[in-house]
Amino acid sequence: MSTSFQLPDGFLWGASTAAHQIEGMNVNSDFWAYEHSGLLPERFRETSGDACDSYHRWREDMDLLAELGFTDYRFSIEWARIEPAPGEFSNAAIAHYRRMVEGAIERGLRPMLTLHHFTCPRWFDEQGGWDSEDAVDLFGRFVDAAAPIFATNVKHICTINEPNMVARFATLRKAVLADNDLQQSGSLEPDGATTGALIRAHQRAVQVIRGVTPHIQVGWSVAIPNYFVVDGGEARAAEIASRSRDVFVLASEGDDWIGVQAYTRVFVGPDGELPVPEGAPKTLTGWEYYPPALGESIRSVAQLVPGTPIIVTENGIAESDDTRRIAYTSGALEGMRDAAADGIDIRGYYHWSALDNYEWGSFVPTFGLIAVDRKTFVRTPKPSAAWLGAAGQSRSIELISDDLMSESVV
């Protein structure tokens, strides 16, 4: 059977991307340096290279999203391109991203800009990154310099994408540089100093944006894993949630919205996080296939910051079988619909990702609604893209149960 639900008036309905993952040749970023350093070969199995060549092909990407029926597009601007050297700002890069904003509007796509999606300029990283004394000031300076990009025709800005994951990577990076064994030092929890700096940087960015463009609704997007307690792990789960999730969610109080990014759940026992149980269905990332994660994550955030509107800024699945992508997404949207029916203020949904892209070390996990040929860069929309996109124009999404998948996605 299938059911449908109506999208409310003004509901944001789109797909998300990140500059480093799709643009290609982002040679001045810290992640480009990590990819080529050899320090984490198990993580960086491939380099980003040309990625999807979207720095040059963004018009084609937006054309496809608009033709499919999406009304919104979340994309990021690249700090390393805009400020390739300290205090040296590229007018050409600023003009490039401004053209993207204008191009989205011309195609009927409302742009949501992300100012920081995991990557920083290499020079920023080399001088200490988020641990440096002037990190917050430097980020604020970048946001101010980027203001011409979002001065008009932008209504939503995400300051920092998944700050909790940025802080976790900082823990990993520090352990690698110190030659520490993470297996001996416990689970990979967010670095405390980086956490504090990111929260202050977000607050500074909000201040700058509201000072120059008060009409823009500002928030940030947090990865929201729900913790599934196993064998008496309640206390440990609460401890992990406090540092890895809740502190970042609570930092959104006073913002115009908070972004929820949900994919799966995390199992926690008395000693910390546990692997996915043997026999459980998994995705190409090794995560558990668990569609209810989105609804559960929305409810967790609503409990922590009940007065803050929610936008789902990422939700999706790394999968080569597109029928499974539709089944997963349908289950996730059902959870979102039920949360909204219970009175939770949800303002939009962005699928991750618009394109199959570079997933921070490998092109193997394919999250995209649109396939991209690695050599020719030819884009091929998948059935999931047509299914999700159609809701943008009809304002109604058909939820498809697993037993209908074989006949519904031919």
Task: Provide a compact summary of the structure.
The chain is an alpha/beta fold. Helices cover 42% and strands 18% of the residues.
Radius of gyration: 20 Å
Contiguous helical run count: 16
**In order across it, which strands form the biggest sheet?**
2-3-4-5-6-8-11-12
Quaternary structure of the protein: single chain
**Share of residues in strands:** 15-25%
Helix content: 40-55%
Explained architecture:
Helix 3 crosses helix 15. The protein contains 16 helices and 15 strands. The C terminus is likely disordered. It has 410 residues and is α/β, with parallel strands linked by helices. Strand 9 and strand 10 form a beta hairpin. The strands form four sheets. It has an eight-stranded parallel barrel with strand order 2-3-4-5-6-8-11-12, surrounded by eight helices. A three-stranded mixed sheet has the order 7-9-10. It has one domain: Alpha-Beta Barrel (TIM Barrel), CATH 3.20.20. The protein is globular and about 55 Å long.
Essential attributes:
410 residues, alpha/beta, TIM Barrel, globular
Which helices and strands appear, and what pairs or packs with what?
Layout: E1 2-6, E2 12-16, H1 19-22, H2 30-37, H3 54-68, E3 72-76, H4 79-82, H5 91-106, E4 110-116, H6 122-126, H7 135-145, H8 147-150, E5 156-161, H9 163-177, H10 182-185, H11 192-212, E6 217-223, E7 226-229, H12 234-250, E8 258-261, E9 265-269, E10 272-274, H13 293-304, E11 310-314, H14 322-341, E12 346-352, E13 370-372, E14 379-381, H15 383-394, E15 396-400, H16 405-408
Parallel strand pairs: 2-3, 2-12, 3-4, 4-5, 5-6, 6-8, 7-9, 8-11, 11-12
Antiparallel strand pairs: 1-15, 9-10, 13-14
Helix pairs in contact: 3-15, 7-11, 9-11, 13-14
